TrEMBL record:
The keyword Lyase appears for this protein: yes
Keywords: Lyase
UniProt source species: Bradyrhizobium denitrificans
InterPro entries linked: ICL/PEPM (IPR039556), Pyrv/PenolPyrv_kinase-like_dom (IPR015813), Pyrv_kinase-like_dom_sf (IPR040442)
Entry GO MF terms: lyase activity
Key word Lyase present: yes
Protein name, as recorded: Isocitrate lyase/PEP mutase family protein
Length: 287
């Protein structure tokens, strides 16, 4: 079931900051940190599970399988990327029902043409506003709980300009979206304009190295945003750490103290070996 904590946070004005997770290790670590949401990033999930770019290559079934596993193993409310809904209106209904049944709390749907592209890469194209409005209405009608939140994302800024993106955001809000996500504004001035012009909880996408300025939660709240996702922090940090660790091993023939590592004992606790050992102590055969 969706977690009502996110809707309550929006109602009380608590800022929601969600780190990106993309596999069970990243999810288990983030789940212990006390965040009020986790964000299952499509980019990171496709990269980690398929080794491919976020370019519409992952299917609904592949994404749902990974997302459902993350939800089942964590206690924090999950926001999950659902790309374009994986097809037309019937696909959107199927996707919403599947994500909600899996225990996701908020689903992100975007107005790109299929196949979609990562929101901070070039050459994105969007479908007509009216088509996305219908998708949002279908998504809203398909959910069984009001605590299951619909995030409507527009990628119109890069190809059609800020005014078009804001117009779309307002239309998606009117269609029933709980949260509006204008992708890749390119300055604080643009972000402030989005905050002024759209009367709905707003989501900011804080991509390290992306097109949008990296801002603190406090600053984003001042600009009128209610939610921030940090999708790349996990997989970029992991890629850097693995590169350093593997290079250290290659150069020295063993690992050295130059590369800090999680302790093996702590990692065993993270993934639940203590429960396995307790089970074995309790139920092991005795003479």
């Amino acid at each position: 079931m969706p977690d009502p904590a996110l809707r309550q946070a929006l109602a009380t004005g608590d800022f929601i900051a969600a780190p990106g997770v993309y596999d069970l290790i990243s999810a288990l670590i983030a789940d212990r940190m006390g965040f009020n949401a986790l964000y299952v990033t499509g980019y990171g999930t496709v990269a980690s599970s398929l080794g491919l770019p976020d370019a519409g290559l992952a299917t609904y079934s592949e994404m749902l399988d990974r997302i459902a596993r993350i939800v089942a193993m964590t206690k924090t409310p999950v926001i999950a990327d659902a790309d374009t809904g994986y097809g037309g209106l019937l696909n959107v209904r199927h996707t919403v029902r599947g994500y909600e049944k899996a225990g996701v709390t908020a689903i992100q749907l975007e107005d790109q043409e299929f196949p979609k592209k990562c929101g901070h890469t070039p050459h994105r194209r969007v479908i007509p506003t009216a088509d996305m409005v219908r998708k949002i209405k279908v998504a809203s009608d398909a959910r069984s709980s009001a605590d299951f939140l619909i995030i409507a994302r527009t990628d119109a800024r890069s190809g059609k300009g800020l005014d078009e993106a804001i117009s779309r955001g307002r239309a998606y809000a009117d269609a029933g979206a709980d949260i509006v996500f204008v992708e890749s504004p390119e300055s604080e001035v643009e972000m402030a304009e989005i905050g002024r012009m759209i009367d709905k909880p707003l989501l900011a996408n804080m991509v390290n190295g992306g097109r949008t300025p990296m801002l603190s939660a406090d600053r984003l709240k001042q600009l009128g945003f209610a939610v921030a996702i940090f999708p790349a922090v996990g997989f970029l940090a992991t890629a850097e750490a693995l590169t350093r660790a593997y290079d250290d091993l290659r150069r020295h023939g063993t690992t050295t103290e130059a590369v800090p590592m999680f302790s093996f004992a702590e990692f065993n606790r993270l993934i639940g070996f203590e429960d396995v050992w307790e089970f074995e102590r309790r139920y092991s055969e005795t003479e």
